[in-house]
Amino acid sequence: MAKFKPYIKDQLMLFPQSINEYVPDAHLAKLVDRVVEQLDTSDIENKYSELGQNTYHPKILIKLLFYGYAIGERSGRMLARKTETDTAYIYLAQMYKPDFRTINDFRKNNLEELSRYFIDIVRLCKELGMVKIGRIHIDGTKMKANAANRLTKSKDDYEEWIKKTQQTIDNILEEAHHVDEQEDSLYGNKRGDELPDDINTEEKLKDKLEKVLKSFKTAKGKINLTDPDAKFMKGGDGKISAAYNCQLAVTEDQFIVGADVTTEANDRTSLQSTIKTAEEVLKEPVREVIADTGYSSYENYEYLSKNKKIGYIPDQNMTAAQQQNQDKYNQQNFTYDKAKDIYTCPEGQKLNPYKVRRVDSPHRKWRQITYKASHCQACPSKTLCTTQSQRTIERDDRRVLLEEMRQRLLSKEGREKYKKRLGTIEPVIGNIKHNLGYRYFLLRTLKKVQGEFRLMCIGHNLKKMHRFALLPA
Ligand code: SF4
User: Which atom of ligand 1 approaches the CA of 351 most closely?
Assistant: First the structure.
């Protein structure tokens, strides 16, 4: 009996085979293929002229990019290489072999359209019943910009630099080339993320420095030479670097339905826009919003209340406030009567409104009311309660929103919903950053980075779709 299956090197196939047969039906590449076939890509197709040389159909390049982003391979060079050796890529490329420049240029020139397909794919998931709508989890993560930290400088630094440029331009160029070489050794030669064309000669560098100096008229703080939109931000590892803040809205099923990138290090200012983005994508209102303390503010609580959304967002002082509950005479243990607008102290005395401070600016409008007791002198607990002659309490008139939020979070239902946050949105961020390895952007400037982030989110959603499709019916 033969020991091995026939082994005949260089044997010719007797019958032509369909490339479809090289990839199993349940493979992620098949899903990517089907999804991209569903997309209306005429916006990109219409950019091509019938004149000139034939080129690859955009759907082929979109499939390569989406599949690559779904499995953590986004370098144009790597994608091009895989179309020669990897059956999934060969299948998606229909045996064409686009070179890395074609892939990189396609991504760069069609980023806006590609990022719009994020919306189409979320809506497709919704139509297929994969996405549970109504409750979203919001969180942000800092992702490094494609910019060397040492090229982030203040106005004074740039002025000093431009002086030096005029005098010793060769030295500075050497430094720029050194950065270039470092990046090349990390990412390969001319992959598209080396020092950009606009600073690779002495004259261009000088022009660029002068432009950067001009932009200080509108910008604050420091500007990075290679990516002027990137800002110094503290990452999850505690290190400060030139980065962007990526905001995500995720459903309970871990589909990303809202994805944006901001240059604000603070998450608080992004809550409302992230909810609005998710609602536009889903074409439905969101009922419940769960986010961490980084998103708590009276402005956000007011927005949720006005728009009839139920929030589960603890404030920074909530844990401290719970601990203060042990102190009988802490403000937490004074009961507020909303109807009568009075406080009652633990000894039963009333504290009435005493004075009001109004804050009235275009962005902030509220009243700070001080409540005052009137018979503290005779109280046996006075030394435990106050050092003033009469105890006072300050209350922001929006505090009722904060109290409602705390009550909701401390309820059994609230605790359970907030606890789910850890297992819902954090694994999504973990998947993007750790499994897929997207810890930095390849592209530069906010608009392009926003597009690239959407590609990462498309990759994540396609993988979720694939897992969903593999679930037993
Ligand atoms: S000091 Fe005044 S406010 Fe404090 S417990 Fe006594 S009566 Fe109440």
Answer: 3
